[in-house]
Amino acid sequence: MRRFCILIFSLLGLCNAYAQVDSLSVVAVEENYTVFAQGIGAPVDTLDVGDRRIRIVLRDDNTWFLIKNIEALAEDELFTSYWSEHVVNPYTKEPFDSIHYRTTICLVDSVSHFVSPTKGKVFSKFGIRHGRPHTGCDIPYPTGTPVYCAFDGRVRLAERHRGYGNLIIVRHENGLETSYGHLSRIDVKPGQWVHAGDLIGLGGSTGRSSGPHLHFETRYRGHAFDPEWIVDFESGTLRKNVFVLRRSYLSAHSKYVPQSIDEEEEIYMTEEQIRAEEERIAKERAAMKYHTIRSGDTLSGIAKKYGTTVSHICSLNQGLKPTTTLSIGRKIRVK
Ligand SMILES: [Zn+2]
After folding, report:
1. pLDDT tens digits along 141-191
2. Does the pLDDT of residue 75 top 80, yes or no?
3. Domain with CATH 3.10.350.10 in the chain
4. Ligand 1 centroid, distance to 301 Cα (angstroms)
5. Distance in Å, CA 122 to ligand 1 centroid
C-alpha cells in the first residue's frame, strides 16, 4: 500500500516526480488497479472523474488507466462511522429497520476485483447449527494455508477474539465486511489498506475450532448473511458482479438457495411485494418451535407432545431420521 500511495503522490506531482518512482512499483500498481492497461507509456497526468475516490491516469502514449484515491476513501463515511479496532460488531446500535428491504451491492467493477480467500468445499454451512447460529462458512484446509483478502478495503480488526481465535475483519468499499477466523498467523494491522488477493494471514485452528479451517463471514452493517450467496468456494469464483442483498438474508435462518430467485423478478419486484414476502417469512419464523432433548425422549413421544408427526419433524431437521439416536441437549425443530 505504501508503494501505491507513493505513486499517487508522485503522479500528482506529474512527470518530474514520476521519474523518482521506480518502474517496478508502477508495474505492480498497474496490475492491481488497471482495466484498460494495454498502454506502456509513462504516466503524465491525472484527471478527476466526478467520483473523488477514483482518478484517471493518462500516459504519454495516449492510453489511460484508473486508480483509487485512498485519501478520499479514508474520509468516506463508510470508513469513519461505526469504526472500531477491537469490537467485532460495532453496528449494534443501528436499528435493523434502518436497512432497506433490498440493497444493491456492486461487488466488482472496473477498479475492484475479487479473490477467493481460499478454495475448497464448504464443510459447515451458514445457518443454525446444533441450535445455535453459525454466522459464516467453514472451509477446511491444512494449517499454514495462505488466506487472501476477498475485496479491496481497510483492515478494521486484527487480533485474537474468544471463539474466533485469531481474527481479521476487513471493511470494503462496497459496504460489506469480511471476517477470517481461526487463523494461525495474522499478517496485517488495523487501519492498513489491502487489495483483493493480498495475503493477510495463514490458516489454523485457534479459538473454538475442532480442526484447521477458515471461518469466513460476510456482513452488511453488522448483520451476517450466507457468504455462499456471493462466493462459490469450490471454484473460488464470485457468483455475480452485482448482488441484490435482501434484508431477509440477514439472519441465520436464511441460507443460500441455488437459483431460488429469478434474477429478473428480483430486480423488478416492488418494495410492497418484498415487504409482503418478508412479513410472510417473519410469521413463519415466529411459528417455529424447538425442543431440547432430555433423557428418555423419543421422536414419537416428541411428535405426540407437539401434535405433529415424526416424518414432519425429520423434514424440518437436516439429516434427522426416525432411527437417529437423540443426544441429550440437542435442539431440534418441531414446528
Ligand atoms: Zn465457523
Report:
1. 999 999 999 999 999 999 999 899 999 999 999 999 999 999 999 999 999
2. yes
3. 290-333
4. 33
5. 10
CA of 215 to the centre of ligand 1 (A): 4
pTM to 2 decimal places = 0.72
Ligand 1 centroid to Cα of residue 56, in Å, is: 41
According to the model, what pLDDT value does residue 33 have?
Answer: 43
> What is the 97 CA–ligand 1 centroid distance (Å)?
27
The alpha carbon of 179 and the centre of ligand 1 are apart by a number of angstroms equal to 11
Least confident among 27-31, 233-237, 310-314, 320-324: 27-31
Q: State in Å: Cα 217 to ligand 1 middle.
A: 8
Going by the DSSP 8-state scheme, the letter that residue 316 receives in this structure is H
* 85-92, Cβ contacts within 8 angstroms, sequence gap of 24 or more: 85/156, 85/157, 85/190, 85/191, 86/157, 86/159, 87/157, 88/157, 88/161, 88/164, 88/167, 88/169, 88/179, 89/219, 89/222, 90/222, 91/221, 91/222, 91/223, 92/222
Pick the CATH number of 290-333 from 3.30.70.1350, 3.40.50.10770, 3.40.350.10, 3.10.350.10: 3.10.350.10
pLDDT digits (tens, 9 = 90+) for 246-285: 998 999 988 898 865 555 556 566 777 777 877 887 787 7
Only one residue has cell 439429516, namely: 319
Distance in Å, CA 137 to ligand 1 centroid: 6
134 Cα to the center of ligand 1, angstroms: 6
Q: How far apart, in whole angstroms, are the C-alpha atoms of residue 192 and residue 170? A: 9
Give 130 Cα–ligand 1 centroid separation in angstroms: 12
Which letter, b or e, does each residue of 31-60 get, where b requires 16 or more Cβ atoms within 10 Å of its Cβ? ebbbeeeebeeebeebeeeeeebbbebbbe
Expressed in angstroms and rounded, the spacing between residue 41 Cα and the centre of ligand 1 is 47
User: How remote is the CA of residue 108 from the centroid of ligand 1, in Å?
Assistant: 25
